[in-house]
Specification:
By secondary structure, the protein is an alpha+beta fold. The chain is built from five helices and nine strands, in the order ββαβαββββαββαα. The chain has helices at about 15-20, 35-40, 100-105, 125-135, 170-175; strands at about 5-10, 15, 25-30, 45, 50-60, 65-75, 85-100, 110-115, 120-125.
């Protein structure tokens, strides 16, 4: 069977994954990142739409698959200098499409399960948003040579300041 390809377009929100697997449906397109609420809450801002290449297929063992990649550019706070750092984020994935937990347990370890509803429908945007969220760095940082880390100037050294000895009071009592 020759796979069908949908031209560059907006990625559909909800899809009939079962039907797309049977047709070996492919997508190349984008999702407006402003529509991905969880992603927008996790970053300072999204700088580009999420570009996706997706393919619904079956593997040699006849498991339903969603194989693809997605990428975007986001702004996050650098954990070193606390200024904004712009980062390219991308993910490549191979997901097993299942209807229940039993089918999920039957999947090979290389496949992460995604559960379809009883009609074979799935929220494709949510799956792609999950993949982008999993690809965000836990500690975003500028490259070390680009970081604008501002070290505070050290204040007067404590060793040069004469502090009263708390035991002087005891020494005075002992002398009495």
């Amino acid at each position: 069977m020759i796979p069908r390809t949908m031209a560059e377009a907006q990625i559909p929100h909800r899809v009939d994954a079962g039907k797309f697997v049977d047709k070996n449906q492919q997508f190349n397109g984008e999702i407006d990142s402003s529509e991905l609420t969880r992603l927008n809450e996790a970053v300072e801002r999204c700088l580009t739409s999420v570009s996706c290449t997706l393919s619904f297929d079956r593997d040699e063992e006849r498991h339903r698959l969603l194989v693809g990649s997605c990428s975007t550019r986001v702004a996050m706070l650098c954990q070193r200098c606390l200024n904004v750092v712009e980062l390219d984020v991308s993910s490549q994935f191979e997901l097993g499409l299942v209807f229940n937990d039993e089918q999920a347990r039957q999947l090979p370890r290389r496949l992460e399960p995604v559960e379809l509803d009883q009609n074979g429908l799935m929220d494709l945007w949510s799956v792609i948003e999950d993949e982008i969220l999993l690809s965000l760095p836990a500690f975003p940082m500028h490259p070390e040579n680009e970081c604008h880390l501002q070290q505070p100037e050290p204040e007067e050294s404590y060793s040069n300041v004469q502090q009263p000895n708390p035991f002087d009071v005891l020494a005075q009592l002992k002398q009495k």
